[in-house]
Amino acid sequence: MISGSKAVCLLSGGLDSSTCLALARREDWVCYALSFDYGQRHRVELEAAARIAASLGAVEHRVVRLDLRMFGHSALTGDIAVPKGRSAEEMSRQIPVTYVPARNTIFLSFALAWAEVLEASDIFIGVNALDYSGYPDCRPEYIAAFERMANLATKAGVEGRTRVQIHTPLIEMSKAEIVKLAAKLGVDLRMTHSCYDPDAAGRPCGACDSCLLRRKGFQEAGMADPAL
After folding, report:
1. Which of 92, 159, 177, 195 has its CA 20 to 30 A from that of 19?
2. Is 30 helix (H, G, I), strand (E, B) or coil?
């Protein structure tokens, strides 16, 4: 990369996306953070995203509003209970009901549009290995396929003015490795939010898949979670 190059960074306000943004900033990318208010039950994550974007020096933070509740079919966007207290084996057995249909495809498409407007060639997304078995749109083959499509679908790509690259720096990392990296990068982990089913005050439930994976990550990293 050229020092100071622009990049669009998808930012949910969770541990992974916050670490991904911090890593991009450390590598001297000029970061434009992009979040989504899509009707998710854990909308409090957007407050976390705003805090993280400001603390990590994003040039701009935009929130796209769209209503995926109109389609539902997910515990995050419909009237379906969020699974609680599941073992790691149960989590990996099948695609979970917290999967939001086509979510990363939608998010990456918006990121691609903004990147083209910014004349940026790079997009960062914080997918990681623990999501492979559960979420089909977090797998490396999916990311590679989207990247190929992106270079066929944009005016800048067709004209040869740029080549879009989707960066997934956390994709082969465990949650414990991500926790350690976040601490090394100076991410204020108190600001992050991971829970799928927080209470009215935004406090984590402590029992959903995301809470359990986060807890396991901090335990294996030998660290206390400052957000608790």
Report:
1. 92
2. strand
Domains and their CATH numbers in the chain: 6-221 (3.40.50.620)
Number of residues that make up the chain: 228
> What SS3 state is found at 37?
strand
Q: In this structure, which amino acid lies at residue 194?
A: S
Q: What phi-psi label fits residue 30: left (phi over 0), alpha (psi between -120 and 50 degrees) or beta?
A: beta
Cα dihedral 153/156/159/163 (nearest 10): -80
- Distance, in Å, from the CA atom of 88 to the CA atom of 97, rounded to the nearest integer, reads 15
Q: Are strands 60-65 and 6-10 parallel, antiparallel or unpaired?
A: unpaired
* DSSP label at residue 98: T
**Tokens representing residue 69 in the block:** 């509740």
* Residue 122, beta-bridge partner list: 7, 165
Residue 166 has, within 13 A of its CA and on its CB side, a CA count of 26
The token pair at 65 is 């509003």
Using alpha carbons, select from 45, 33, 83 the residue that is nearest to residue 213: 83
The first and second tokens of residue 209, run together, are 């898949």
Neighbours of 154 (CB within 10 A): 17
Q: Which pTM does this prediction carry?
A: 0.95
How high is the pLDDT of residue 131? Answer: 52
What are the backbone dihedrals phi and psi of residue 212, each rounded to the nearest 5 degrees, phi first?
-70, -40
